[in-house]
Amino acid sequence: MIRSIMSFTKLSLSFWGYALGTAARLLNIASSKTVAQKPQIWHGKSASYKYLRMWGSPAYVKRLVGDKLDSRSSLCRFIRYPKETAGYYFYDPSEQKVFVSRMQCSWKEDFQRIPDVMNCSLRNQVRHLSRM
User: Fold this and answer.
1) What pLDDT was estimated at residue 112?
2) d(CA 68, CA 57)
3) Are 89 and 97 within 8 A, CB to CB?
4) SS3 letters for 32-58?
5) Cβ contacts of 114-120, under 8 Å, gap ≥ 24
6) Total domain count for the chain?
7) pTM recorded for the entire structure
8) What confidence tier does 125 reach under pLDDT thresholds 50, 70, 90?
9) Range of the domain at 27
10) Tens digit of each residue's pLDDT (9 = 90 or more) over 33-82
11) Rounded to an integer, what distance in angstroms lies between the CA atom of residue 124 and that of residue 92?
12) Per the count of CB atoms within 10 A, which of 13, 33, 79, 119 is most buried?
């Protein structure tokens, strides 16, 4: 699962630990055949999936800046959900830093088109295999 998560981006392999944390989070909230209502059992209420984002997706994150003329946001990559607080872990390639942000962020929508391309590719592979 980690390999497939990391294949959507060009982030370094040094981020595999963050991909592992994201994969664990996704597996923990997903229901399975044996436990159909996993989030309801643990928390007593149904889970909300609105906060989920694609690993490595770009987002403009508002940063605390001292100078009024500096840019107030920077283009970062989402890499993990924090355990201890609400928000997201982001990687800022310009500063080469990982940080947690609860600030307002603007997600770039063009990154969300990648799964559609992958689904199309998967359909083509299935068609190819069915012809054999």
Assistant:
1) 47
2) 28
3) no
4) CCCCCCHHHHHHCCCCCCCCCCCCCCE
5) 114/8, 114/54, 115/54
6) 1
7) 0.68
8) very low
9) 2-44+52-131
10) 776 666 666 667 776 777 888 888 888 888 777 677 877 788 899 999 88
11) 36
12) 79
